Amino acid sequence: MAHLSIIGTGNMGQAIAAVAGRGGHTVQLLGAADAATAATGDIVVLAVPYPAVGTVLAERGASLAGKIVVDITNPVNFETFDSLTVPADSSATAEIAAALPDSRVLKGFNTTFAATLASGQVGDLPTTVLIAGDDADAKATLADVVTSGGLKAIDAGDLRRASELEALGFLQITLAAAEKVAWTGGFGVIA
């Protein structure tokens, strides 16, 4: 079984913790005020808003060496909801990977809403977590956490695919913010 440290105690952090718990994995939930508490998990999930990632990396970067680090962020411009805040030829995950060269950085959970993680369903379909990264073993480890928690996991490719996942997450968020889809719904995958 895996041990996860989830940095961020909001809806997504709690939903991911519940998925891991359903699969029999252990979870350490850390809030923003817990910077002095070591992240003990082999998998560390960054369940914070993208603007907070820089602070988390400044406080914890060195301690994340050798760990699987899962970026769930969507770098949306939340003032305008009209763009992503990273260059078009990059991604939040690529920036995190560059800052953590000794970690195995993955993109995951950013195309799901907390409600669909909690329920395990998107409409009539099982919730699917898309995972991108350059380390096949790290992706398999995260996929095991996801599937043992009752969800589906799909390997979306190498870390370059994070930009497409962020674009998909951005689209889903903007549709929900405009009340065109529900925050309890989202995109389903038939595979």
Automatic annotation (TrEMBL):
Gene3D superfamilies: NAD(P)-binding Rossmann-like Domain. GO terms for molecular function: oxidoreductase activity. The keyword Oxidoreductase applies. Keywords: Oxidoreductase. It comes from the Bacteria. Residues 34-75 form the Pyrroline-5-carboxylate reductase catalytic N-terminal domain. The keyword Oxidoreductase applies. InterPro entries: NAD(P)-bd_dom_sf, P5C_Rdtase_cat_N, STEAP_metalloreductase. PANTHER family: DUDULIN-RELATED (PTHR14239), REDUCTASE (PTHR14239:SF10). This is Diguanylate cyclase.
